[in-house]
User: What shape does this take?
Amino acid sequence: MSKLHVLVLGAGFGGLEVAARLSDAAPDRIDVTVIDQNESFVFGYSKLDVMFGITRETWRSHYRDIARPSVTFCQERIVAIDPVAKTVRTTDNTHRADVLVIALGADLDVAATPGLTDHDEFYSVVGAERFASRIRDFDHGHAVIGVAGAPYKCPPAPSEVALMLHHVLSQRRKRADTQITIVSPYPTPIPPSPDTSTALLSEFEERGITFRGSNRMTAVAGDRKVITLEDGEELDYDLLFAVPRHKAPDVVSSLPAGNDGWVQVDPYTLLTEHADVYAIGDCADAPVPRAGVFAERAGAVVAEQILAKLDGRAVAPYDGYGSCYIDFGGGRVGRVEVTFMTSEGVRGGPFSPPSLAIGREKEAVGPARIAHWFGR
Assistant: This one.
């Protein structure tokens, strides 16, 4: 009997989780090919570590080191996806599959905000590394963390930047000479978890950080160092941390999508309208945040569905659960859990207040995930 061929597009949290679980459960029945244009995986939180001098270099795990039975990695750029034929054309090859899992993430759409440039964003690896020297040199004036629109990857990130910036400025005895403001389209820092939002707003008040909710950055005038807000107000800045608008990758345009461009899926199965074609993580329109932990959970559910179909058994639906760490600065880390699809709707909680102990717990998570995904 020939083996089932699963083609995974994208080697982030979701794609790697699909491959690892299928490799663990059925290496004798399933071959997995993972395609990504990048040579290595980077945890999002490691970008903040570089920005704020906790580490000197971004922690990278090279895909060439994946050592899992029945898993093959190809570093190629995807050019076209045919969801009907389940074929994928790259710059190097044409790949065919029995099952297609699309986990290509979200792209930054810097050009969607007038005046915004790549120089202003900190969400990419290059952008985060560029901000390390700016933060070291910043000792007076107004720092603004401006979000251009929702959804965006890692919703706690603007709050983390504000709190971590407060910490490093306080260490350098420059906090009294600075202001820190967050401009967010959300009414509270973490709307699905009121307890988490309350904790963050309390920290902001104690540290003199201004949170401007239900607003967003709509334009940037770099020559005047001013951003325009959705309500028309102009806000001066000396250091701008920009969160650009996000969009689905252009290459997924061959799949069914809404007006916002995200790939349409059944929220409980993560299947598209095409048989055996799934979309998970940031590129899909499942009603969950764009964050690695939710993509990872989705990857686990899709892997289980693929296995269940082989075995002829039922499987539990996707529930939109995620557990996320939030850096409060100074090594103090909190943890929030949210389940987005329950019979009662979104269920936020529990929230674990920030502590050094949870900070140490977070440090262990990255190596454990890499060991799981890469087969080390």
Q: What stands out?
A: The chain has a mean pLDDT of 95. The chain has two domains: 4-106+248-318, 110-246. The first strand starts at residue 4 and ends at 9.
